[in-house]
Amino acid sequence: xxxxEDVKLLGDWPSPFSMKPRIALNLKKVDYxxxxxxxxPKSELLLKSNPVHKKIPVLLHRGKPVYMDFRPPxxxxxPYDRAIARFWAAYIDDKWAMQMRDINKANTDEERAAAAELxxxxxxxxxxxxxxxxxxxxxxxxxxxxxxxxxxxxxxxxIRVTEKMSGLKILDGDKFPQLAAWADRFCAEEAxxxxxxxxxxxxxxxxxxxxxxxxxxxxx
Length: 220
What we know:
Blueprint: E1 7-11, H1 16-27, E2 33-36, H2 44-49, E3 58-61, E4 64-65, H3 79-105, H4 109-134, H5 147-153, H6 156-166, H7 177-188, H8 190-193, H9 199-216
Parallel strand pairs: 1-2
Antiparallel strand pairs: 1-3, 3-4
Helix pairs in contact: 3-4, 3-5, 3-6, 6-9
């Protein structure tokens, strides 16, 4: 591993947002300690390290919160390509991942059908984006794992859970051959294998989480 000393990451294993820095740190061979943050209640270390947003993940170096900036960069060097990568990463985080969650909250066949339509429309966009961003390479980043790869890859375990719970085949190899092949490659990466949650374990966590959310919801 690298020469970095006292690198700690506040996060939790089910969180796709915690997956991103874990994969990036592994790719860059930076040794780190994962400090599991359960969020209920939030730890004093989290509140002190991220007093504004009070969210995970938080990367600490020698006790101080830091921004990850490694060389060679995970983002493309070309300004246009960098902007495109950020666009697709934001789309995945802010829109498509939310649509994927909606299908597990659907109560009727109509709601499930509508959610499935949005999910597959998004996967089609990502299949096309892979061709554009990858420029013939094995990754959204071209010849190397990049920012979009890490962003989408951090949701792969949750995609599998959604497939298991909903009965949908989201990354269908017949419909989306390039994304399906990309997902297999991503999960086989050494930097990913050690941090990718097991589907059954994550599914049990998801069921427990949904029961808690339903119990906390006001009765209609």
